[in-house]
Design a protein that fits this description.
Elements: E1 2-4, E2 11-16, E3 23-28, H1 33-47, E4 52-55, H2 64-72, E5 76-79, H3 89-108, H4 112-125, H5 135-140, H6 151-154, H7 161-182
Parallel strand pairs: 4-5
Antiparallel strand pairs: 1-2, 2-3
Helix pairs in contact: 3-4
Length: 193
């Protein structure tokens, strides 16, 4: 993770998973340790806690508050050597891409947050050159949809049919149970009534 300084924007807090290359970017006005911890808690409640976090030696990352957060959540904190951003290369490369997107948004007079959101979904659903799979597919073990139609949209094949069947059965059981509790009866209204 890294902070992207604000030329004309808020700070960009960039997080990338080294295994899948899945990335998220959050924009913040304050870059205090408590603000960063709040963002990480929101992300980790969806994606789970990582084994480790690699970061530069920014004061918000080396504070006792941040170290305590990592210790409490069993996260190894790895710092890159000072003045050597290449040690955190994956996120530094992502910063270049996001900075390009910010410059394009500024040039077009567009909302930079929306432009970065568009870039993020495009990046996370596009197969990566080194893995051959999209970051979202590696992270979630499934392909997430974007606005470009795909084969999965027209295919009737359901890869998770067992889970869908179980969900359908449980929903039906829940409906029957609630109908009994409320004393609901079958409707005697037909088409045309």
């Amino acid at each position: 993770m890294d902070l992207l300084g604000p030329p004309n924007y808020d700070f960009g807090f960039v997080i990338i998973d080294y295994y899948s290359r899945y990335q998220e970017t959050k924009f913040v006005k304050n870059i205090t340790s408590s603000e960063i911890i709040g963002i990480l808690e929101e992300i980790f409640c969806r994606l789970g806690y990582p084994k480790s976090i690699r970061e530069d030696n920014g004061r918000q990352f080396v504070s006792s508050e941040f170290k305590s957060f990592c210790d409490k959540n069993n996260i190894d904190l790895i710092t890159s050597p000072p003045h050597w951003p290449q040690a955190n290369g994956e996120v530094e490369n992502m910063n270049k891409s996001i900075l390009k997107r910010l410059q394009i948004a500024h040039g077009k007079g567009a909302d930079y947050r929306k432009e970065v959101q568009k870039f993020t979904i495009m990046y996370n659903v596009t197969p990566h050159g080194s893995t051959g799979k999209s970051p979202s597919e590696l992270l979630f073990n499934r392909t997430i949809r974007d606005k470009i139609p795909s084969v999965q949209d027209v295919s009737e094949t359901i890869l998770d049919s067992e889970a869908r069947d179980l969900d359908k059965i449980n929903k039906q059981k829940g409906k029957e149970r609630e109908d009994r509790v409320r004393g609901a009866k079958e409707a005697d209204i037909f088409i045309g009534d």
